[in-house]
Design brief:
This protein is mainly alpha-helical. About 60% of the residues lie in helices and about 10% in strands. It is built from nine helices and two strands; from the N terminus they run H-H-E-E-H-H-H-H-H-H-H. The relative contact order is 0.15.
Length: about 210
């Protein structure tokens, strides 16, 4: 039996290009999982919003015949990925990063206590993103923009920063649920956990996946 992974690759480098990060994560997976990912079916279609074209939506489905072992590997890997590389930043880190970013774009006439409350709102609204993605978003804004960002703009940059990792997590969640639905294997609690996680990941990764095209 192929051993389950115990941790994500220790050499994960958030500063590396997105394609390299994705390739490193995939290469560290057990071979049976890599086979499932390589054999999946991918469909991309345009997405339209109130303002017209809004990027590309990705629909990925695993091949037929996902085994119980592959589903368990996917679930274990997903737990490791979301618990480490994609773990949400701590509130202290978020608040410090937001306050530092806003200090580069001081708002005239805003009292310090109000500015602090604004930073708390930002920290709450960026709370699902990992620290490295928030740091990357702040760095991108500092180096490319002259004006204070909005929360929506920072969320978009955070989503873009970790789009490859979230897309991989979403695919793992689909694999984890595939065997249970096809074979009826595993106990009820495990199946419910996998399916529930898949739904949460689809919701969290939606914006990031739209930006992958």
């Amino acid at each position: 039996m192929t051993p389950l992974p115990t941790r994500p690759p220790p050499a994960f480098d958030p500063a590396a290009p997105a394609a390299e990060r994705r390739a490193a994560l995939v290469s560290a997976l057990p071979a049976p999982l890599r086979d499932v990912l390589a054999s999946g079916r991918l469909e991309r279609r345009p997405r339209f919003g109130d303002r017209g074209f809004d990027g590309v939506t990705e629909d990925w489905s695993p091949p037929d015949g996902v085994t119980v072992q592959q589903a368990l590997m996917a679930r274990r890997t997903l737990d490791e990925l979301t618990g480490t590389i994609l773990a949400p930043a701590s509130p202290d880190h978020l608040l410090a990063r937001v306050l530092a970013l806003l200090s580069h774009y001081p708002a005239k006439g805003t009292a310090p206590e109000v500015e602090h409350l604004v930073a708390l709102d930002w920290a709450e609204d960026l709370g699902e993103f990992p620290a490295w993605a928030v740091d990357a978003a702040a760095r991108t804004w500092r180096r490319t923009q002259k004006w204070r960002p909005s929360i929506a703009e920072m969320r978009a940059l955070c989503e873009e920063a970790c789009a490859p990792e979230w897309a991989l997590a979403r695919r793992l969640s689909v694999i984890a649920a595939a065997s249970a639905s096809a074979d009826g294997a595993g106990d009820g609690a495990g199946e419910a956990t996998g399916l529930g996680r898949a739904g949460r990941l689809r919701a969290l990764a939606g914006g990031a996946v739209r930006r992958m095209g």
